[in-house]
Description:
This protein has helices spanning 2-20, 22-58, 80-83, 91-100, 137-140, 153-158, 167-174, 217-220, 245-259, 275-318, 320-328, 333-369, 378-404, 408-413, and strands at residues 64-68, 104-120, 123-133, 145-148, 162-165, 183-186, 189-197, 212-216, 234-239, 271-274. The chain is an alpha+beta fold. The protein has 2 domains: 2-56 and 280-413, no CATH class; 87-269, no CATH class. The protein starts with a helix and ends with a helix. The mean pLDDT is 83.
Amino acid sequence: MMIFRLIGESFRFAWDALRQNKLRTALSLLGITIGIFIIIAVSTGVDTMRDKIQSSVDKLGSNTLFVQKWPWVFNDNFPWWKYVNRPEPSLRDYNGLKDRMDMAVGVCYEVNASNRTIKYASNSVDGANINAASHEYSKTWDLEFQDGRYFTASESQYGSPVCILGAEIAEGLFDNSNPIGKQIKVMGRRVTVIGVYKKEGEDMMGMSQDKNVLIPLNLAKGIFDVNSERYNPQVTVRGKENIALEEVESELKGLMRSIHRLKPGEEDDFSLNKTTMLSNQLDIMFGVVDIAGLIIGGFSVLVGGFGIANIMFVSVKERTNIIGIQKSLGAKNYFILLQFVLEAVALCLMGGLLGLGLVYILTLVFTYAVDVEIILYFKNILSGIGWSVAIGLIAGFWPAFAASRLDPVEAIRS
Length: 414
């Protein structure tokens, strides 16, 4: 109880000192406010962007592998001349993997024809993506429907003229009417709508089903060459939940080498892409941005810290006589030390809270005025408060220590 009473008294002394010197207090806060604002604003922006991009990456599936011609990640020494001569993933690869993969929930062959026009009666939608996929598409991707259903096995097998629409395509063609059972024109063919995806909205990486149209792969074979590089063929493999991705990748790599008849020691002529590759690159990129924000804000905080320390030395000088009286009345050294340290911490906390307030206002401006959602996370608030307390303790300790060591007689006579 004595400790709490001493802290309370020290805080009251500190608060009185700050209140009596309003202009000096305001000027001292400025450096800390700007520093905390920069550090927390950068952290908030980076964390928000990281989470949005990561949620986009997570849509690809944490246990999913993509057999493609080109790797997703490469460095400055990227040997593009080797990759350009690689074969595209083919139906032969898909059939070989589908029959032999033991660790996969589903193996799917996909092709994409981008920027196409879809028509219904007098209505049309431009910029649609036509996806054609084998029946396992529903096993390798998480699909949500707002209307209708997925293809049946027989519709996929016999290439029935059916399709599933993205929400934006459905709205553009049918307004508010029900599209199920209606016939639309896709790449010159009439197909019947059997389902509509749930509306997702476009994410940070531009991935969304909203502007996609899915048709069975066997239907697409009669419309265009599904093995052509022009349509970006890929084989998507989703591993079983109870099996590590590394084991699925090892099995997939071995089977692909066997299908392509590659000799031991011979380089792979395919890429196995996975979401962890993107996540690692994102961590590196955002880590650099975090450090840059920390350095810029750190300089401002450093200047603010020196300002606080200088003000505290001035405060000690002004109150030397009062310190002498307090010590002569029995005040211990730690009471004087605590008094000035708390004053410095209170100053920095006020500056930090002002900086956090500015960041919060900035998030509201971006969210409601610019329509870009920025989130001030609780960990960023704690970080701002932590920085403020740390700066206050560091900047205030030496002046406080000097005050606590004053001789009471000399202090009273000053």
